[in-house]
Amino acid sequence: MQAAKNSVALEKKDVVQEPVQKKKGLFYYIRMDFVLYLMLLIPVLYIVVFKYVPMYGIQIAFKDYNIFQGVSLSPWNDFATFKQIFSSPQFYQVVRNTLVLNGLDLIVGFPAPIILAILINELVWNKFKKISQTILYLPHFLSWVIIGGIVTQLLSPTGMFNSLLSHLGSESVPFLTNKYAWVATYSLVGVWQNAGWGTILYLAAMTGIDRQLYEAADSDGAGRFRKIWHITLPGIRPTIVILLILQIGNLMAINFDRPFNLQNNLVMDFGDVISTYVYRVGIQSANFSVGAAVGLFQSVICLIFLLSSNFITRKLGENGIW
Amino acid sequence: MSHTLKNRLVDFTAAFVILIAVFICLVPFLYILSESLSSNKAIISQAVTIYPIDFNLEAYKVVFGDGGMLYSLAYTVILTIVFVLLALTVTILAAYPLTKKRLKGRNALLLVMLFTMYFSGGLIPDYLNVKNLSLLNTPWALILPGMMSVYYMIILKSFFQSIPDSLEEAARLDGCNDLQILLKVVLPLSKPALATISLLYAVYRWNYFQDALFYITDEHLYTIQLKLYNVINISQQMSGENVNVNLPSEALKSASIMFGTVPILLVYPWLQKYFVSGIMIGAVKG
Hints:
- The complex is a heterodimer.
- Chain A has helices spanning 2-17, 26-32, 34-57, 70-73, 80-86, 89-109, 111-122, 126-137, 144-155, 160-167, 179-207, 211-219, 224-235, 237-249, 257-262, 268-271, 274-284, 288-315.
- In chain A, α7 packs across α11 (179-207) and α17 packs antiparallel against α18.
- Chain A is globular, with a radius of gyration of 27 Å.
- By secondary structure, chain A is mainly alpha-helical.
- By secondary structure, chain B is mostly helical.
- Chain B has 13 helices and no strands.
- Chain B has helices spanning 2-36, 40-44, 58-66, 68-95, 106-118, 123-132, 150-161, 165-173, 178-189, 191-207, 210-215, 224-241, 249-284.
- Chains A and B meet through α1, α3, α7, α8 and α9 of A and α1, α4, α5, α6 and α9 of B.
């Protein structure tokens, strides 16, 4: 309120002091919408301090970063950091792991919510539909720390899965300790956590489909599967396409919490990804330049992926994300 | 006749598959719950499945007796509340002016914000930034860096835009300035959107683990997630070193997991519809 009063006072005073200019300069507009610009000050300050200042800090990837000299004063190092990471086999390993785990998420995790949404959409008992949706969304609201804990308890050699298997006379499965089994576990846990929640957008898109189309199909004698194939799926196609672009664009991006909470020392060959690698090298070992260089590599590739998948989608005649 | 029979068959098949999916979602919780209520002996002999064996509350006595867990829980609740209030304020302050088409520089500012959704400094520059601002080992390290999500800002902005202009014009004729219009007209009409965004922020803060791991080493400032991470991953070693052989290590882990899960389980069913509507607002205009 104080700011509002000030602005009113300021406007009046300024108008009295100088006559309205013919040419409308920047200050004219700032005075016009003083309150609005004042509101934007805090968000802009936030964006600058916490988003753009770190971007300025990226330059340490090209420097021999020294904590005492800081970002600006540390000496440039002729791409030595990049030469170092590009000649390190571990770097290629974490890039590969990132692509493989995200690729699996794309193959296994992407279709899961679509199938689930179609099934939910076909449900006729409303109460059952509501309750099952509530339960299916739930895993999305748990932190990866908790999911990591649950997964360890459930899938460890002494966990419920393996004890059930041994009751059935089967050998125990090294879900968490064998690296191939771990990759499968990683992607299935992703499905468990996200498939239910992922249905929301598709279900929303399905409610937007014109009911008359279904009625027309009914009178043409179309069965349930034909209606799904010819009406429901084409109806949610734009949604599918947008989510697909986003996911393909993010193949190189990987969040930290999920792999970090699921991985263990025995599966690091496959489980170590860019984010966890940057944490270990950059923060735990305080090798800031290497961490920043790997992070920059990831950001740039990510941006290229996103731009090109959007470009290709538009070329194919679909609406992109912009 | 066969047509309806076939229809029924599809109904039951769909329901059956969904029932299996629901079951898969629930079983892990039942298992953890029954483990937390079972004796360690029963767990080690692999007798525990989805109901407790040798029912006892030992593990919960340890979790609640520790005090550290409850402290961490209370601390995280306060942290989350402060975070949501600040984040909501900043998000409103960005979203409202950016709905005004007449505002010069609006598109440029929007672009500057959108760019940060697709490109960022990365973990290390973020870390060094927090370090340079002397925020390491303060609660502010967990509040300030995430104070506005550009994505949620856009959700809120598109909600603001759906409010009819005539209402604002009427308020302006009554002598309101922009701030008064925001406080007296726009915000009261946006309660559902504000509730949704607050919840999204709250869940983000509650569940986010990475920043606490990176920025916090002082045990008094551990969020519940960091605390849980340590219990789940360290209790194994502790039970080896500890003289007290009766420490229910597996049961303790499960009890800690339940301790971290129950707050979400309690509030979630009441809030679910807000989340769902929030995601849908976001989907209408990206």
